[in-house]
Amino acid sequence: MVTSRTAYYEALRELALSKRTEFDVKTAGFGLREARQIYRAEAITIDRRPLPSCLKAIYMCDEVDVSVAIRIGLPMEPTLFALVHELKHHWADQELVRAGYVTCGDYNQNELVEKGAEVFAAEFIYPVAEFSDDIKSLGDGKWDVDKIIRFKREVCRAKVSYTFVRKRLERLGLVSRDQFDGVKFQKREEEIYGTPLYKQRWFRDRRRARTS
């Protein structure tokens, strides 16, 4: 089972790299706009709607239409990851979804399929080879909270979350699984780099004035 699971994940990484080439994806330039362009090319409708907190997105297809429902209010990075996650279902699981063998969003029932979508999305957005090259610029020392924040702010080329960076470091054996449990990376980032513009009161007040 381990061998087949490993082979399945590796095949999805290869699919991700192949699709990156097909759509001329460049890591630093890949964001929501580029993801939406792929969706248009694949004739997938994006439907923003309220979803349960346990779901970020759902892939749906029948003989005529293909769509992805994505939860309203998600930050940019989780939204991007969710959109690419659903592309895996589109490219690798579409027939199974149509036949009712796979229910997108049911993680417990389809654990391997859903984990495969996470593997696919991670490789599509930020290939392991590029990530490994990027972390070399910070040396071989121990990875602590501040080093992760510095990497994301100053080195990281992809639009990914702190959770993404932490999990990738775990996979590479550079940090332990529970090493940063409870750490509020965003709060610490603001302590180091200051409050971002969009959170500052004067900026929020100005935006409210423009929309009122």
SSE order, as H and E?
HHEEEHHHHHHHH
Q: How many helices in DSSP terms?
A: 10
Number of strands: 3
Global geometry: globular
**The biggest beta sheet, please?**
3 strands, mixed
Main structural class: mainly alpha
CATH architecture assignment name of the largest domain: Orthogonal Bundle
Integer average pLDDT:
90
Find the CATH topology of the largest domain: Arc Repressor Mutant, subunit A
Helix content: 55-70%
Distance between the termini: 58 Å
Describe the structure.
The chain has ten helices and three strands, in the order H-H-E-E-E-H-H-H-H-H-H-H-H. With 212 residues, it is mainly alpha-helical. The protein folds into two domains: 2-125, Arc Repressor Mutant, subunit A; 128-195, no CATH class.
Keywords:
single chain; mainly alpha; Arc Repressor Mutant, subunit A; 2 domains; 56% helix
Topology:
Blueprint: H1 2-22, H2 32-41, E1 45-49, E2 57-61, E3 66-71, H3 76-92, H4 94-99, H5 111-125, H6 128-135, H7 145-155, H8 162-171, H9 185-193, H10 201-211
Parallel strand pairs: 1-3
Antiparallel strand pairs: 2-3
Helix pairs in contact: 1-5, 3-5
Summarize the structure.
This protein has 2 domains: 2-125, Arc Repressor Mutant, subunit A (Orthogonal Bundle); 128-195, no CATH class. Helices cover 56% and strands 8% of the residues. It contains 10 helices and 3 strands; from the N terminus they run ααβββαααααααα.
